[in-house]
Design goal:
It comes from Paraburkholderia silviterrae. The protein is α+β, with helices and mostly antiparallel strands. The protein has a single domain (9-148), classed as Alpha-Beta Complex (Nucleoside Triphosphate Pyrophosphohydrolase). The protein contains three helices and eight strands. Strands 1, 2, 3, 4, 5, 6, 7 and 8 form an eight-stranded mixed β-sheet that branches. The longest helix has 13 residues, at 48-60. The mean pLDDT is 90.
């Protein structure tokens, strides 16, 4: 029996459309500079709603107000025969304030940008994962689930803020 407990990594992402353009981040990854929605990991003691608001602020400096859940996505990365890593991604859509706040972005974020769906589609080789376009396509297809679909029960105490850059 394996002593290591398997658990998926839970992530959140934000779809923000303004005037036909989508808010994205260009970020450093092990595979080089990539495009992604504002996204990141759920932290201990957070609700998914709190996590997507926090991640969007940290990566773009925009205050995000979720309106609906676009979808839940599961992706597995790994080599055959290895356990690899599984991600469960909850993608929300919503709006942001008209201007970003004056604050530093997460260290891996190079810049924010607004791209049309066609511009994003044309840059598919730069997407962090195939979910970048899939989530936008689902959003454009009108896929929406009310926020109340995700229920949070017995959320424990919040974790203490970490010192230094986020890992």
């Amino acid at each position: 029996m394996n002593d290591e407990t398997w658990a998926p990594h839970v992530t959140v992402a934000a779809i923000v459309e303004r005037d036909g353009r989508f808010l994205l981040v260009e970020e450093h990854t092990p595979a080089g500079l990539r495009l992604n929605q504002p996204a990141g990991h759920l932290e201990a003691g957070e609700t998914l709603h709190e996590a997507v608001v926090r991640e969007t602020l940290e990566e773009t400096a925009y205050a995000f107000a979720p309106d609906a859940l676009v979808g839940m996505y599961m992706t597995h990365f790994g080599k055959p025969g290895e356990s690899g890593t599984t991600y469960l991604r909850f993608t929300y859509c919503g709006s942001v304030a008209s201007e970003p706040q004056k604050r530093a972005l997460d260290p891996d974020i190079v810049r924010t940008l607004w791209l049309s769906a066609d511009e994003l589609r044309a840059a598919s080789e730069r997407h962090r994962t195939p979910l970048v376009m899939q989530c936008v396509d689902d959003y454009l297809a009108g896929k929406r689930v009310p926020l109340e679909f995700v229920r949070t029960h017995a959320v424990g105490p919040k974790a203490e803020p970490k010192a230094g850059p986020k890992g």
